[in-house]
Design goal:
The complex is a heterodimer of chains A (453) and B (484).
Chain A (H helix, E strand, L loop, with lengths): L1 E5 L3 H12 L3 E6 L2 H10 L3 E4 L5 H6 L7 E4 L4 H14 L4 E5 L3 H9 L8 E3 L1 H14 L5 E5 L4 E7 L11 H8 L5 E7 L2 E3 L12 E7 L3 H7 L9 E5 L3 H12 L3 E6 L2 H10 L4 E4 L5 H6 L7 E4 L4 H13 L4 E5 L4 H8 L4 E3 L1 H17 L5 E7 L4 E7 L20 E8 L2 E3 L12 E6 L14
Parallel strand pairs in A: 1-2, 1-4, 2-3, 4-5, 5-6, 12-13, 12-15, 13-14, 15-16, 16-17
Antiparallel strand pairs in A: 7-8, 8-11, 9-10, 9-11, 18-19, 19-22, 20-21, 20-22
Chain B lengths: L2 H29 L2 H24 L9 H19 L1 H5 L6 H12 L15 H16 L1 H8 L10 H8 L12 H25 L4 H12 L16 H14 L3 H8 L3 H5 L2 H20 L7 H16 L14 H13 L12 H19 L8 E2 L2 E2 L2 H26 L5 H12 L20 H15 L3 H6 L2 H4 L3
Antiparallel strand pairs in B: 1-2
The chains are: A alpha/beta (453), B mainly alpha (484).
Amino acid sequence: MNIIIAGNGKVGLTLTRQLSAEGHDLTLIDLDSKRLGDTVEQYDVMGVEGNCASAPILRQAGVEKAELLIAATNMDEVNMLCCLTAHSLNPKLHTIARIRNPEYTDQIFEMRETFALSLAVNPERQAAVEIERLLKYPGFLRRDTFAKGRAEIVEVRVDGKSKLCNISLSEMLHSIIKTRVLVCAVLRSGTAMVPNGNFILREGDRIFVTAPTANLTTLLKDLGIITRRVRRVILCGGGRVSYYLTELLERDGIAVQIIEQNPQRCLELAALLPNASVIQGDCSSQEQLEAEGLGSCDALVTLTGIDEMNMIISLYGASRGVPQIITKLGRMENCQLADSLNLGSVICPRELCSNNIVRYVRAMQNQTGAAVSVHTIADGQAEAVEFQLDEGAIHCGEPLQNLRLKANVLVTSITHGAKATIPNGDSVFRKGDTVVVVTSGQGVLRQFNDIFA
Amino acid sequence: MNYKMMGRFLAQIVAVEAVFLLPALAISLGLGEWNAVRGFLISLAVMGIVCLILFASCRKAPGPFGAKEGLVCVSAGWIALSLLGALPFRFSGEIPRFIDALFEIVSGFTTTGASILPEVETISRGLLYWRSFSHWLGGMGVLVFLLAVAPAGGKGSGFTMHLLRAESPGPDVGKLVPKMRTTAMILYLIYIALTVLDILFLLAGGMPLFDAVCVAFGTAGTGGFAVRNDSIASYSPYLQNVCTVFMLLFGVNFSCYYLLLMRKFSSVFKDEELRLYLGIFLGSTLLVAWNIRGLYGSVADIFRHAAFQVSSIMTTTGFATTDFDLWPSFSKSILLMLMIVGACAGSTGGGLKCARVLLLLKSLRWNIHQVLHPRKVQVVRTNSRVVNETVLDNTAAYLAAYVIILLGSFIVLSLDGFSIETNLSAVLACFNNIGPGLDAVGPTCNYGAYGLASKLVLILDMLAGRLEIFPILVLFSGSTWRNS
């Protein structure tokens, strides 16, 4: 597909990486020729230097022939104008804009038609939603939802006190966990592996478990993870994510304390969020954190703009025994580091946002059997791919044990109608099913039929 | 250095060359030229062995492939191509010395057209075809061909940009469309279409099929190997005019043709480089025609010869319809100047390229303005777009390297005892990929008289000229081979 990406920043770069790997024709527009040059060297894409909201530049980037425009510059207004201009040059064009300013969020939804937006993405808001989901089920480091929320892949860390420590997988599945789940990957010291029944879990392993969403509570109970309801949360940093997250958490009746350094921003937040307690102070200072009751809070979320700071505060929180910790990281590279540290769940807004856009692109392609969504798990070493089975799907109605799948491909759940199941040898694919597949192979699975050997 | 990845590229290049050797073999088989057949078969065997060894030893090629590897890969590829491509001449016994065979094929692949053969017509047809075909393959570039036919790379296929940049002439190489492979395919399709058109026009003028194909290859690659001793002189005026027009067409930036196909006519006609190129052609033709007015009978003849030679030298082809070594000095000086200017960037021609001349002139004007008005802020533009300063710096560096290599080669050549005019024009003609020079290397003479050292220098000059100097220079840089 012919795609224009306006803005070669963090999100733009992540998108370039993902979309060029999927074989799309990409044209990038950016003001900074140096940065543009670096990207063009690295990926098979074309670069156009200039202002993405100006018609001549858009024409030069081939807007007439493009099918999708993604505006991801650091200015909301430019993104909107860019989409508007591009759409008037090519009425058939799909447009995606990144809109981050909370003041625009509501109106953008209503004015999407006016601004000719097919989709407005908001990385910070998405991150907030993701964090809220994690706080609802404390104990899971990460949750990936499939089949319209009916099946999930959750990440659990095996720590020293866990029931799972030094136990083989078959033991775990037969005696500890009463409900049917599937361990699709284990991440041990930075390497992902697909385990078999004799695999012994060790301290520090992170396991990825597929389960129907309805069984998550049972799973938590069986694993012996105490699920206390989260009542009080400390947020470090008062950025946009904090604002969105506070709004969401207040709706759930959770008390929120925000520590923010900038007095001006504190005033703004206090005005916008009447129920939250906004504290002006340095969240990197341990006294400040203790003064806000770090030792007795249920969760700590570090959301400052500096990755290093977030990591340090999270480490301190972990050492003080905070039950749940969520760390925001701006650069995905730091996530590898995070694996060796006890940072709790790690959230990367940029990654979430570009995953969302990639999902939209895949849906647009709309080829038969194309993947509906793709989630990268296990630090990017494996992918969970969701397929919707249609007429083109082969091997429908044959039991799974008779089928030969590609190496490194694992069918982790089949959702038929409203019921998500973990497949066994007798399971069959039927038309209309939603199937989730985990793959650790190099090649991209584009179609459902690609999973067969 | 990622040797394995480079090995795999080399293996592919050799395989492509071996495949392209087959038509030449078929011609020799059909005509019963058994010496040439033997030469081709032995060469194919050698290529097969080299190819197998490279493939076998470089099967799993992972890891980074950066600008350095790209540059080295291109120059190593061209050297391998030349060394193996010279084998048929040597093994058939028609060019007994390997250095001569190498000179001949390097001259072919770099689209120079400088020959060491005194009598072309005594060479077997299969080898003549191979010689002319090397122009065609070298014109657009063998790596660009590989990019066009190779399966689309998945992750990290951006490195192919380094290959295109190293092999495509011009100061600022870009893609036509987002995908590398599509760009390479478009370039080759335009190239093939124009070549076929050229062959059809030549056939329509009554040229024999074999001659038409070989001359078209020589024109398309802006090479200059012909199949007759007197180059193009014995063909009819119509055929000579067809050659003039097509030489000129192949000297135009190929992205202009793409823009024409995209119906963006105005941006083609406003292209400053194209205007400069055509302007220089017209101006030089008029001046030369005025200068040689006494030598030929009719006005038509005067203009035919003037236009042909100007077009031939400027596009760095090197065909000749007349012995321009006998022309007055003024005309010869203009031709020498045209050798340096060369064709457009992004064409199959060589030389300094009109785009660089344009940039150099503009930055010269910029510098003069800067001296007169030190506080004036101004930028250099071409086609109403601001030119990046690194491009200007690179162009200046290119000119410096160009002059240094030119002078160095000139000194080495003067050891062989020919006249200054001979040596200077020989270096210019080889370095700019033209072919015939003046005096003892003029259109009716050849390079056979030079010694071993001079031939080696000229071979390197031809390669450096075709690959735009830097890929060859990095081979001699220590930091290329050191592992950082």
